[in-house]
């Protein structure tokens, strides 16, 4: 006897609490703080829904859910470091011998 099961559990945004609350840890796009729900689907049809326990961050670009504590911190506001030693994308201080930013990974 052979059973073929098509379905699974996925997370979906239930309600956006704060737009642009942080940055995605995977693609560095803006991420929203959201309430989410888990959805059980059988043959791509939602069968059962239940709420998530705590709010999560959700990236609209890559559809990643992650805890708010993992969100990228804002760049430092230390103006004592000259602009030539800062990354041009994330504005964080970078050692002059680096070819890539250690924070955002962009080429310098």
UniProtKB/TrEMBL annotation:
This is Zinc-ribbon 15 domain-containing protein. Residues 23-105 form the Zinc-ribbon domain. It comes from the Eukaryota. InterPro entries: Double_zinc_ribbon, Zinc_ribbon_15. PANTHER family: DOUBLE ZINC RIBBON PROTEIN MJ0416, OS05G0435400 PROTEIN. Transmembrane segments: none annotated.
């Amino acid at each position: 006897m052979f059973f073929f099961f098509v379905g699974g559990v996925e997370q979906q945004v239930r309600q956006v609490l704060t737009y642009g609350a942080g940055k995605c840890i995977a693609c560095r796009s803006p991420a929203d703080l959201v309430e989410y729900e888990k959805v059980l689907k059988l043959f791509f049809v939602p069968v059962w829904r239940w709420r998530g326990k705590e709010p999560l961050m959700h990236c609209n670009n890559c559809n990643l859910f992650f805890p708010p504590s993992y969100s990228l911190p804002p760049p430092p506001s230390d103006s004592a470091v000259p602009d030539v030693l800062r990354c041009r994308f994330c504005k964080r201080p970078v050692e002059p011998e680096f070819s890539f930013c250690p924070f955002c990974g962009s080429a310098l």
